[in-house]
Amino acid sequence: MHTKPTKYVWLMGGFGNVLFQGFAAYVLREQGNSVEMIDNLTRKSLITKILGWSIHDNKINSLLLDGIKTKKTPSIILFSLVFMNKLFGFFSNYICIFEKKKDINNKSIHHFGYFQSVYFLLKNKQNFKSYCLILRNKIIPNVNLENNNSVVIHYRWGDSDWAKENVSYYKSVRECLQKEYQNYEKLVITDDIKAAKSFFSNVTDVKIEKNSVLQDFQKLCSSSIIFTSPSTFSWWASHIGISNLIYVSSIINDKLGVHKDCIKVVL
Fold first, then answer.
1. What single string gives the DSSP state of each residue in the chain?
2. How far apart are CA 124 and CA 106, in angstroms?
3. Taking the CA of residue 30 as centre, how many other CA atoms within 13 Å lie in the half-sphere pointing to its CB?
4. How far is CA 199 from the centre of its chain?
5. Residue 3 has what pLDDT?
6. Which of 2, 128, 140, 208 has the CB geometry, 3.0–4.6 Å to 188, for a possible disulfide?
7. What is the pLDDT of residues 141-173, one digit of tens each?
8. Domain 141-266 in CATH: superfamily?
């Protein structure tokens, strides 16, 4: 009996990126494949040093995603083939870069990408909902869905090119908070306390926090009204969590969309 070869999904980038890679693994498993996620590119190594990549806190990856392994000897040849695939589309039956594809190539062995396209997410909407529910039960299993009316804002700044290219979105968020949520208690989750305090200095009833990756993600997931940043981190929190009103930037809406049955506002 011929058995299918194991598929490998390579983890890389921050936690939001890793959740997209976990979803790629979930879809491949739903297609009947044996799948392993490889975390070499989220650890300090010669390869990540050569690439000049920042290494993010990856402690929670294994708590939320199953089947994560470290390859003892990741191949330089493999990454050369990935580079050639990205530039010229070669080796597509061996390597799949799924960012711009409408579906995953089930023939490929190695799968790479920072996120999926809006078309891929729409095509796999039921799998996406199931994946988000699995993650919700792991991240916020005991949250009170009825008594939570919090407004939480994600202000990502220090290490995000998307955020710094979309300052106008944050200005729209601040204006919205001042006009529509003046009498609400508001929590800002950020990676840059100093920048957040300066930016929201004229907004009343604002608390600003920076905690561990998991704690920040849990607080975003537990909000009923969420202002996402131009970032996959809070985009995932808005889908995994209990939010029934989601504010998103136009850049995130164009790239990823919102695939949850609730109210969405694009700023």
1. -PPPPPEEEE--SSHHHHHHHHHHHHHHHHTT--EEEE-GGGS--HHHHHHTPPPP--TTHHHH-SSEE--SS--HHHHHHHHHHHHH-TTTTTEEE-TT-SS--TT-SEEE-S---HHHHHHTHHHHHHHHHHHHHHHSTT--SSS---EEEEE--TT-HHHHTTHHHHHHHHHHHHHHSTTS-EEEEES-HHHHHHHTTTSSSEEEE---HHHHHHHHHT-SEEE--SSHHHHHHHHHS--SEEEE-HHHHHHT---SSSEEEE-
2. 14
3. 14
4. 24
5. 67
6. 208
7. 876 555 455 899 999 987 777 777 888 999 999
8. Glycogen Phosphorylase B; (3.40.50.2000)
The amino acid occupying position 94 is: Y
- Compute mean pLDDT per 10 residues along the chain, 267 residues long, and list them: 80 94 96 93 82 81 89 76 75 85 88 94 96 94 63 88 83 96 94 95 94 93 95 96 94 93 91
Q: 248 φ, ψ to 5°?
A: -135, 155
Q: How confident is the model at residue 145, as a pLDDT?
A: 53
What ranges do the domains of the chain cover?
7-138, 141-266
**CB-CB contact of 161 with 198 (8 Å):** no
pLDDT at 115: 94
Q: Are strands 186-190 and 151-155 parallel, antiparallel or unpaired?
A: parallel
**Residue 85: predicted pLDDT:** 76
CA distance 143 to 213: 18
- What is the dihedral sign for C-alpha 90, 91, 97, 103? positive
Tokens standing for residue 155? 């202000």
Q: Are 34 and 127 in contact (CB under 8 A)?
A: no
- Measured CA to CA, the distance from residue 202 to residue 205 in angstroms comes to 10
